[in-house]
Amino acid sequence: MKATWVQRLRLANRQLVFKLTVIVALMFGFGYALVPMYRAICEALGINVLSLAERKEQAKNTQVDKSRLITIEFDANSRGPWDFKPAISQLKVHPGEMATVMYTFRNRQDYAMAAQAIPSYAPMQASSHFNKLECFCFNEYTLAAGESKEWPVVFVVDPKLPKDVHTITLSYTFFEVPGKKLAGL
Q1: What Gene3D superfamilies does the record tag this protein with (predicted)?
Q2: Per-residue pLDDT tens over the stretch 52-77
Q3: What tens digit of pLDDT does each residue of 114-159 get?
Q4: What distance in Å separates the CA atoms of residue 78 and residue 6, rounded to the nearest whole number?
Q5: How far is it, in rounded angstroms, from Cα 97 to Cα 101?
Q6: Neighbouring residues of 12: CB distance < 8 A, sequence distance ≥ 6
Q7: How many CA atoms lie within 13 A of 37 on its CB side?
Q8: Which of 39, 125, 142, 147 has its CA 20 to 30 A from that of 23?
Q9: Hey, which residues does 71 pair with through a beta bridge?
Q10: Which is more confidently placed, 28 or 185?
Q11: 115 CB burial (10 A radius; 0-12, 13-18, 19+)
């Protein structure tokens, strides 16, 4: 009687190990398939979320409209005790041409802080034609007390920008993220 009980227990253990192995294999397969599924869903829904490398490649393939120049004005506003400014106040670009502008940040406080920048555009109709490929506004940053950093904005103005728009103002408001005062980094 004892042998049958042990045999049944071993059989049950083998069945459990087999079931768990199948579950682990299915979970691995599902995790592996998530990236192509995510891309397919985003493409089907029109949420074209591309990686930075794909965006840069896409930007290289755009047609540059040499027949006109657009003046891009850069503005920086800060809500707090830090310095925040663009390296240049304006730049002239051809639609379709990739450009980079650096912004400088300095935390004048005696403690670390988490902060983020929010962009805005003028005229409003230009916002859908101003394509940022890389931007500090995509992320929240932590700045140590007295720390200075420089971050780029890489952008392309879409050649489909209406012909009556000659100037675009890109304005950033840099603000401290509430509730995230960080102890001495």
Answers
A1: Ctag/Cox11
A2: 455 555 555 558 888 899 999 998 88
A3: 888 888 888 988 888 888 888 888 888 888 888 888 989 999 999 8
A4: 73
A5: 13
A6: none
A7: 6
A8: 39
A9: 92, 167
A10: 28
A11: buried
